[in-house]
Amino acid sequence: MIDEGIGYYETSTNFTEAEKIALRFSDLMDTEPDKIDETFYNQLQQHYSTEEIVELGAFIGFNIGFHTWFGTLGFYPMFTPDGRLVDQEESARIYGDKPVSHTQGAIQRANEGFQETKTDSSVE
Fold it and tell me: Considering the entire predicted model, what is its pTM?
């Protein structure tokens, strides 16, 4: 669901229309904030109250800023693709030389690296 929500939410049958517009809101805030205009807010209001839109926008904005800041620190994700908590060293082995945005194929690369790590550790 996470991978589908990142790359294919618009065509997915696993998300409601309300969830799709929320994901679109997040996507636009991260990549094209100028496209969030009155028309877009009117589309959001078909599914959410003004209070919910404000809360959703604040949450999205906080998370984009948080992840951008962590990227400047070279901070790696704290969890493996299967949800296991790991230290920065193991996360670097799984996710690669440099942490990258989840919207640029990081989950696929992490899953591939995670499978290699599991294979390497099972040989020992």
Answer: 0.66
